[in-house]
Design brief:
The complex is a heterodimer of chains A (about 260) and B (about 210). Chain A is α/β, with parallel strands linked by helices. Chain A has 9 helices and 10 strands. Helix content of chain A is about 35%, strand content about 25%. In chain A, strand 9 and strand 10 form a beta hairpin. Classes of the chains: A alpha/beta (about 260), B mainly alpha (about 210). Chains A and B meet through helix 2, strand 6, helix 3 and helix 5 of A and helix 5 and helix 6 of B. The structure holds adenosine-5'-triphosphate and magnesium ion. Adenosine-5'-triphosphate binds next to strand 2 and helix 1 of chain A.
């Protein structure tokens, strides 16, 4: 796979042409939990700089799919290629991919025994072998970016949910990832905090980050997504540009789902 | 006919306190060393070491400490190996506490939320880094209350060493009760002393808990 793709920053708004190599490629991916077939023949090609929103009913396999991309879950069939590296059981490759892929979780998963600053510098210091002073600077840079530099010396438990999620985003960014995965980053938040987290994500999108985001925030999808994916029962049912996806859904199940979450 | 004052009773009992404390410390330190070893094995080689460690814990949790003491002290003597009461008591109490500490601390590591492993994995940390930097520090915090509870149990269980003739608090109180014909005073006093020791441990534990809470 070619690594000569033009930098995403040069073409932030548009996906780079397919021939230049995808950021993520899933080909015929199948996964089972015991007897339960959770991912069924998933095919997906995410271009560099592309933003994809994934939605679908609970239990449809959205989390499982994005967690396969950084090997938090193992797939049994098909291939997953991230930034030109195929995921196998080779621990070296898994580490390599995880260094390039950041992830944000529904429940933030900050390290409660470390300060905000330490949460951010941990991986740069231990994984990237960055000197502590540089790591501190880097961390402060991203804390300013998510607009909470003044919280640097507090502990996660002392922050609001929205602030914690922004710290989690900053923590992932400190590894300078090429791809960001989000698993329902706002669904554990009180409504008044959703906005601040979404704003952070929008600004990330504007900078050309490749993003895969499981969310039911359809306003966000409209605003930043290049494509919206609808999943149900382990399959990708429908995939389209947001305008077409929302105004003209093709499948019955998509229509039903959209009517449930948009209208009441 | 009784020349013992209450103070004499206390004085003689207090003289035995160091032995109880000494035995407790040996039991805790010995138990901690053994269980840290067993836990390292269990986490480093879960497939190979998992079952033997579980068996060890089950075996020593599932048999009375008293029987273990009998077996080591009298049983070994029958086989021609002479041991001292101190040795037998130290060995049995260490093994006993190692079983409980292993179980407790293992549980504390497992109690660290899965999300902590996932977040650190997603940042690219290696397994040993996750263990050392993320999971163990949190498990350590979780382990304070149950460990303090176990220490109190250990202190109380040192009284069993009196059975093989080791003179610690309980044995001292028996001797004094026999000499003074005042069992209520002697045993009452010793119960009070045990309480003071155990209560101090609990207080220290609570203090420690507060200091590391965030
Ligand atoms: N570790 C596991 N073992 C067995 N089954 C699992 C496991 N994790 C998830 N599942 C099942 O797999 C299915 C897909 O789960 P997944 O978490 O991917 O769904 P989701 O689309 O993210 O749902 P939600 O919107 O509720 O987060 C569910 O039916 C779930 O019960
Ligand atoms: Mg999910």
């Amino acid at each position: 796979m070619s690594n000569l793709a033009p930098s995403a920053a040069l073409a932030p708004a548009l996906p780079v042409s397919a021939s230049s190599g995808a950021a993520i490629e899933l080909v015929g991916v199948n996964k089972w939990y015991g007897e339960f077939h959770v991912l069924k023949d998933i095919n997906l090609r995410v271009h560099r700089g592309e933003r994809i929103v994934i939605c679908g009913p609970s239990g449809s396999g959205k989390s499982t799919m994005i967690r396969c991309i950084n090997r938090l879950e193992e797939h049994q069939q098909g291939s997953i290629i991230v930034d030109g590296i195929e995921l196998t059981n080779d621990l070296k490759r898994i580490d390599e991919i995880r260094r390039e892929v950041g992830m944000c979780f529904q429940h933030f998963n900050l390290f409660p025994h470390l300060t905000i600053l330490e949460n951010l510098t941990l991986a740069p210091i231990w994984v990237r072998k960055m000197p502590k002073k540089d790591a501190d600077e880097l961390a402060m840079h991203f804390l300013r970016k998510v607009k909470i530099p003044e919280q640097a010396n507090k502990y996660p438990g002392q922050l609001s949910g929205g602030q914690q999620q922004r710290v989690a985003i900053a923590r992932a960014l400190c590894m300078k990832p090429k791809i960001m995965l989000f698993d329902e980053p706002t669904s554990a938040l009180d409504p008044e905090m959703v906005k601040e987290v979404l704003e952070t994500m929008v600004s990330l999108a504007e900078e050309g980050m490749t993003m895969l985001c499981v969310t039911h925030e359809m306003g966000f999808a409209r605003q930043v997504a290049n494509r919206v994916i609808f999943m149900d029962a382990g399959q990708i049912i429908e995939m389209n540009e947001p305008e077409a996806f929302f105004s003209n859904p093709q499948h019955e199940r998509t229509k039903l789902f959209l009517s449930q979450i948009l209208g009441h | 006919m009784n020349d013992f004052t209450t103070w004499d009773v206390f004085r003689n009992l207090l003289a035995a306190v160091p032995w109880t404390i000494y035995l407790s410390l040996i039991a805790f330190a010995g138990g901690a060393v053994v269980s840290l070893l067993l836990l390292s094995l269990r986490f480093a080689f879960p497939r190979v070491a998992g079952t033997p460690v579980r068996l060890y814990v089950q075996l020593f949790q599932g048999t009375p400490l008293l029987m273990q003491l009998f077996l080591v002290y009298f049983g070994l003597a029958l086989m021609g190996v002479q041991t001292t009461p101190l040795f037998a008591a130290s060995l049995c109490l260490s093994v006993y506490s190692s079983a409980y500490l292993t179980e407790t601390w293992y549980g504390c590591v497992l109690a660290v939320p899965k999300g902590q492993w996932e977040a650190s994995s997603s940042l690219g940390l290696k397994h040993w880094q996750q263990m050392l930097l993320i999971v163990l520090p949190q498990a350590l915090r979780l382990s304070v209350p149950p460990t303090v509870g176990l220490m109190v149990q250990i202190v109380k269980n040192t009284s069993l060493a009196s059975i093989v003739g080791f003179v610690e608090l309980t044995r001292a109180s028996q001797i004094i009760a026999n000499a003074t014909f005042e069992p209520f005073l002697a045993y009452g006093a010793v119960a009070f002393i045990y309480f003071v020791i155990c209560f101090s441990i609990s207080l220290c534990g609570r203090h420690l808990e507060k200091r590391i809470r965030i």
